[in-house]
Input
Amino acid sequence: ADSDDDDDEYAPTRRRARPVAVSPNVYGDLVDLEAAYRRRGRTLRILGLHGRGSNSDITAIQLVALDLQRFVEIDTLDGARPAPPADPAFADLSSQPFREWWDVSARRTSEASESSEQQQQQQIVAAMRRVLTAIRESGPYDALFGFSQGAALVTLLSYPGAAEALGFRRDWAFVVCAGGVALGLDVAKGLVADADKLVDLPSLHLIGARDPYRRSAADLADAYERPVVARHSHGHELPTALRRDASFGARVHAFFRDRCAETRRRSPDEAAS
Output
């Protein structure tokens, strides 16, 4: 039996901002970004969602590649379903259980039955409720970050009207999808009145040139009205080597600098509406 309905632990893991030493020659715009955060007046809050066969420890390691720790407060949340590690190396990086948000195996075979697809849809909705409950109890958050399956989930949650259809509010301002995959989009569209709408939030999509799922990541970006894409030379990963990629870092930090300006302009009443 699935554990989604029985698991009532919705508290995200808090990852406090920690300074990270980075050469100014790597990210030339880092001073400007830091000034943008100071002008904002409060720390940017992000909720991170892991990929399939991963967990919050791996998400925290991946986020180091974006070098945002000194500026943001990052919470991470684990899925409810146990899963084997997506990469054998994960076992050396985390002693915590590995998780997934829903079982994707039903869509991988032509023999997938209607009942198995319905079960998967129920799992997706349960995953959406899990994240929305965590946001309601521990938020608000300025942004959602997701890697791989987590990026798909971030997108489902961000569809106009999807959160409201489940009895919650979409109150985050933007999203970041890393190594995204276009999964479950039909489920989110089935929750809303206008299934042809695109996600109307600013979005940053991190796509690797050697990622075997890069076409799916591009399809996920197409679900947004105004996606910003930052490409790197790696695979389905966010390696710390990205901190030495000046072009990638400049694009990521420019996106966050713009979001700082936007969220600073939002009044508390607008953020809560």
